[in-house]
Give the backbone structure.
Amino acid sequence: MAEDNKYVEEIVRRILIGTGNKGKFKEIERILKGIGIEAILPEEEVKVEEKGNTFLENAYIKAEAYYERFKMPVLADDSGLVVYSLGGFPGVFSSRFWEIDYGGYEEPVPDKDTANIRKLLRLLKGKEDRRARFEAVIVLLLDKDRGVFSRGVCEGYIGECPKGDKGFGYDPVFIPSGMERTMAELDPEEKNRISHRGKALQKIVDFLKNMPKD
Amino acid sequence: MAEDNKYVEEIVRRILIGTGNKGKFKEIERILKGIGIEAILPEEEVKVEEKGNTFLENAYIKAEAYYERFKMPVLADDSGLVVYSLGGFPGVFSSRFWEIDYGGYEEPVPDKDTANIRKLLRLLKGKEDRRARFEAVIVLLLDKDRGVFSRGVCEGYIGECPKGDKGFGYDPVFIPSGMERTMAELDPEEKNRISHRGKALQKIVDFLKNMPKD
């Protein structure tokens, strides 16, 4: 029991963020800072094959790989864009949509984000149903055999062309429900409040708040 | 926050056990009772396709299906036998090992447990390395977007022939490390203390204990 408490203290103070994506790290760091938790950027990125069929599985695969390497509580996420009229694609393939065997390939020029967006807009060309959701699953692995997970969803639709230069990934073409701006036109604070990752992270934060501090 | 607390109270009092397996229910019920939590047996079994590649994914699939149907906190597990010399098989296929396309099929007579054990003993015949582990992953889904998971492992080896009539599944051929009896020869209390499911459940129990009660 004494050991349990020591351990909870450790969690509440410092959490390794299992990502090599600086944009993602900054989003998470900002939110954790608000409850007095220090987000640690790994000294090096741990490469894993995200072979899961679901966001939960991929988030767990990442968290486990970072835990194995750094032996401290790890928070990892997997997220993606789920487009209803594309049967849920790109889903777990969001970050490499340009190169997968669905709807044709796209040259990764000038960069992968742009290629992914080009492919998406091509596949949705002329389609009336442009509804989509961003979905994020976060796994907080406390030790190798125990963890917490949460899911956050942001419903919206895909715009006709990219707008805005904040954020990353599909942000420039994703317009959250009830808004007229794309996710890439929102300030970080505004984005965190409504985003899939922000919502999922808030649920993890609620867990951490509920844990005894001493 | 008020809502959060109400919700934690609810969790601590009653948890639906997402299983149709009475043996498993009784094991879990006994352990939860020890910390004042009532285990609820579902009015009807919810059938799901356990198509995940991992115990975590399958446990989550089950928990989600029960949550969708009963809208209350659900505990579900997935577990299996991992045999080292069989490259990890039967693993997630443990309960239907007899019928999968690995190592030949087995007639399910007189019952599936027996068929699974027969196939296992056939595949291990003459093998020196009989090491195996039972592994369980438990998911406690608190609401549709938030949960806790834990993993428990019991290392051991596969005996030459079935012994004992307690427990279920592969228990009659699994001999825990350091013991001379099979899992099916242990009393329920003794089994819960060392079993994969018992250990995984204990970790979930630690979580629940750490949650505020009012």
About this structure: The domain at 2-210 of chain B is CATH 3.90.950.10 (Maf protein). DSSP finds six helices and six strands in chain B.
